[in-house]
Design a protein that fits this description.
Layout (H helix, E strand, L loop, with lengths): L10 H14 L2 H21 L24 H4 L1 E5 L4 E5 L4 H6 L16 H20 L1
Antiparallel strand pairs: 1-2
Length: about 140
């Protein structure tokens, strides 16, 4: 007896094709995820905190908030989406020193480029809703 292919015709095949089309170029979905991530990271600057606690205070007083002397560190974080994901990058040479610390200059880590687990779940729900919309159309 020859095998029976249940996906060869009908509603199952059409549904699979809709999923394939919806997932073909995922760049728009990743672009949305990147924007959500940038908004959340912007909030880290507003809260002056990393994943564990508030940022280490400065030893001297300055008239501007921590990590915001020029605003460039906050403004230069960009999302680069493609069809398989999104990468968050900063073009500033000192961004890693602030993120991870720099012992040679006695600069403590002040992680600003992070997203909480609950925020990741929320982003996942947004992606799921977007896929549902794509599949219904």
């Amino acid at each position: 007896m020859p095998p029976y292919a249940i996906w060869s015709d009908g509603p199952i095949r059409r549904a699979i094709n809709r999923v394939r089309v919806a997932l073909g170029d995922q760049t728009p979905i990743w672009r949305r995820v990147g924007q959500e991530a940038l908004d959340l990271i912007d909030g880290n600057f507003g809260q002056r905190s990393g994943p564990q606690d508030k940022w280490v205070p400065r030893k001297r007083h300055y008239p501007w908030p921590i990590l915001e002397m020029s605003g460039a560190l906050r403004e230069k974080i960009k999302a680069r989406p493609d069809r398989r994901g999104v990468t968050l990058v900063s073009s500033l040479p000192y961004s890693a020193a602030h993120q991870y610390g720099y012992k040679d200059n006695n600069l403590p880590a002040r992680p600003y480029l992070w997203i909480s687990e609950s925020d990741l779940r929320m982003i996942g729900e947004l992606v799921g809703k977007r896929l549902e919309i794509e599949l219904e159309s």
